[in-house]
Amino acid sequence: MSDDALVRWLEDLGTDDGDIVGGKNASLGEMIGRLRASGIRVPEGFATTADAYRGVLDHGGLEPQIRAALEELDPDRENLARVGRKIRGLIEKAEIPADLAAAIADAYRRLGERIGRDAPDVAVRSSATAEDLPGASFAGQLETFLNVRGRDALLDAVRRCFASLFTDRAIAYREEQGFDHMKVAVSVGVQRMVRSDKAGSGVMFSIDTETGFPRSVLVNAAWGLGETVVQGIVEPDEYHVFKPLLDRPDLAPIVEKRLGSKARRMIYAGRGNETKTVDTDRKARGRFVLTDDEVLTLARWATVIEMHYDRPMDMEWAKDGDTGDLFIVQARPETVQAEAEAQLRTYSLGDHGDLLASGLAIGDGVATGKVCRLESADQIDRFEDGAVLVTGMTDPDWVPIMKRAAAIVTDHGGRTSHAAIVSRELGLPAVVGAGDATDALDAGREITVSCAEGDEGRIYDGIAEVSVQDLDLEDIPETRTRIMVNMANPAAAYRWWRLPADGVGLARMEFVIGNRIKLHPLALLHPDRVEDDEAKRQIAALTEGWDHPADYFVETLARGIARIAAVHHPNPVIVRMSDFKTNEYADLIGGRAFEPQEENPMLGWRGASRYYHEQYRDGFALECRAIRMARETIGLDNLVVMVPFCRTVDEADKVLAVMAEEGLIRGKDGLEVFVMAEIPANVFLADDFAARFDGFSIGSNDLTQLVLGVDRDSDRLSGLFEERDPAVKAAIAQLLARARANGKKTGICGQAPSDYPEFARFLVEHGIDSISVSPDSFIPVKRIVAEAESEVPALAAVAAEGA
């Protein structure tokens, strides 16, 4: 048999060669040959062919022996381990035919000449001929060997790759999928080893893995060889990049940047062909693996690869520590979200028990069940169907157990770990990287696993109340009135990308500060005033990895806001500047040193009155920096700024002046500034406020409170708090009329339109431009508004003209 029939250089291969070298190697060849001109680097190398594998079986007369062993397999596969071990032993002991051994040795020698290195270290990867097909996911079932050096070691690794076609998990998968074992062959790819042991590596997807949001690239990164990320040994750094702005070299559209613990790293062992996993030093754990420029380079490559293959892709990358160069080392179709049905199912929790543990949420579902803690997949006989699997980490041997679970919880791993990938494929909620879940969750305990609250997955004690709603995205009527959504949690923003909303009418900045940043901004600027030792410790831990603690506040806030804006780009996203009350600010870490005690915080030092005040102006400056970063650096210029609780016209002038000093100049680069209409003064002096702002957003809760003189938090007065009261409606009608007369935009972001259909009709009758509601109320409100517009076309048309 000729050398070409046994060994092929990767650059001579393409996607049509999957039957010859398997999907993985064919894809590598496709990228080397077709995408090199786009700047994408793939390590050079060669691959053995399917004929080479079959030649080994023929040379040793192994096929009938393998078939005979497979016939011994029990229907329930109880003897799978014994059968798999027997077949692998046959192949591992087989002699490689002389012509194949010579072809591999010659290609290995020539590879060394190409890269200028005798006996180069190489990565040896298995590639099945049925692998990486849209309907078949063989990921993680066959073996990979890293840091292989020398002819004899290479031939041994090739033989072991051939044998790995019959790992227990691969046999079981082919049985379940109906593949004929003997019709599947294995190719072995041999590539120059990228010295990522000296730098870092990871996985990326050209689609959001949890929601299917198609305009985001997800990048995971850890120190050392990439097996730690794939196997779920570490919690990697995580980045989300907004694809539509990647063609702008002046922007850095990274909308999420999360530091992972990266507690372990895999490196060369320094002897033979071995690798070892070691602890990561504290300094490296506190640093991001990739620079922003490297993240953007990888994201651009992911976009090019996706466009080339015309489908979402799952890729592995590595950085060479000797040269600093980035490489793509694998690319395969993404097979979960790309094939998911376009439906929107939402889960919400009612009463629930105490929080027991938390980690990264995989999926957006909720499940309940009893805890079953297992240390290894060999304990499958202890697992009860419908239990929650709790373990340190998983690998492909765990799949038979995972299929029987209600949910999965692991101590270790990130979004691209084995547990995460398989959970998505099975449609199971999972919480990965939960730290001490195996200690915190007692065996047999009833728990609720919730992935319905954003990026953070939470495990609660007991069986919680869970409601499920399927939103029908078909036949949603068109409306002249813009129907927008209220959005507080950036982590949940991707969940709603399928909603045909006209933007975000209210994004609450204080939610991002309270839930993501957790720190009082002045505690970062004036740490000497923080006396609480525990607060100091928490501040140091949260800001680790940032050159200046204030940068942590600015970047985290900017990216949280940008993530919301990215989902709705280019539609407007109205961001309300912080509107904490003093007691809420004091509850932030380090906050008590900076906040006064007030008898009635609801009517105290809040909103606009803080922004220009000497005791908070520096904190407001950080908020402004975050808005500028989101708009100008990340590139989400669809952000609109909104000023809350602005009591007087003079106060409006002061706030706008401070914003201008911080670079947020109304009208510059299309920046619009709205004001919340939630104080009677905003209604009485609507013409004056209209001269200073581009629009009004009615805050019906505060407006009702101040029109009726009712404390909205008072249980005794709850019967008097009524947004539909004639006095409140008169104020709203007056404001809408004056805003329309001044050519200003109007909207409402309170709960009333969601709760009361007649209130939504009232707003349409008075020509409001937009109504913003909670996402789960969007469709019913959209239908109510469409009906109302059909009944009052004249005023609806007036509203449309004024938009």
Note the quaternary state here: single chain
Helix-strand makeup class: alpha/beta
CATH architecture classification name of the largest domain = Alpha-Beta Barrel
End-to-end C-alpha gap: 74 Å
Q: Can you tell me the CATH superfamily of the largest domain?
A: Phosphoenolpyruvate-binding domains
Number of strands: 30
User: What is the number of helical segments per DSSP (H or I, 4+ residues)?
Assistant: 31
Q: Helix content range of the residues, please? A: 25-40%
**Mean model confidence by pLDDT:** 91
Task: Characterize the largest beta sheet: strand count, sense, and whether it forms a barrel.
Answer: 8 strands, parallel, barrel
Estimate the global geometry from the Cα principal axes: elongated
pLDDT below 50 for ≥5 consecutive residues: which ranges?
A: 132-138
The overall number of domains is: 5
CATH class annotation of the largest domain: Alpha Beta
Strand content: 15-25%
Could you tell me the CATH topology label of the largest domain.
TIM Barrel
Order of strands in the sheet with most strands: 23-24-25-26-27-28-29-30
Q: What Rg do the Cα atoms give?
A: 30 Å
